[in-house]
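Please produce the structure of this protein holding zinc ion.
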Amino acid sequence: MNEERVTCMFCSAEDDLRSTAHVVPESLGGRNAPVGRPGVTCNACNQYFGQKVESKALRSFPFIGFRVLAGIPSKKGALPYTDTSIGAAHATGMPGIVELQPRDNEISCRVSAGEVSELRVVAEVTEPLAVCRMLLKIGLEQLGKHFYEVAISDRVLAARQFARRPGRGDRWWFILQSKPNEYVFGSEAPRDFSVEIVEREGVLVSALHMTGISSMIPLEPTALPPAAGELPEPEFRTIWAVC
Ligand SMILES: [Zn+2]
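Below is the modeled complex.
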């Protein structure tokens, strides 16, 4: 590659280009996650996203369920857990194997006696703003990898601002499709990750696909969400994030 200048699309800082840039956070994709173009997001902005946005988003449905079942630790090495109807489900680090910590003694006894055969997980996006901003960043990173000039252009300025510095009252939407049955997988963490940038009716859209989870988010604010009834619920949900 030539010595072309790359400046951060979020803050215009110039970065050293030696660091690896993950399009999908490591705590989600592990080593299988797509890698972006170094410098498109500077180290300082990456750190900001990691601490203020991704750490929250990755503790929210549906990503937390995926991480618990895939056994993917956080960047600092902590294994994730999620609350269920009968206690906390902890990742063990082994894909497909989860350790249940029953909420009380009675539940514990009933689990040991084999009387409990299902557990329910709260399927609510508890952090819509953080999830939305993380999805935007993933899309913008992918755009920056292949179409850097577009990623730093005014066309996606509103998306960059909402991701990095949303203003009070600002809104953005995304579509989430979750199929939790898909991520009850075997002994190997799933490797499928793709982030595609497509143009739909003149609007740039980022589509993320991973095992059990798909999402679509417009990278331009002009797009309207699908009309009610257009996509079947509860498999598909249109979620508004409001700052
Ligand atoms: Zn930056």
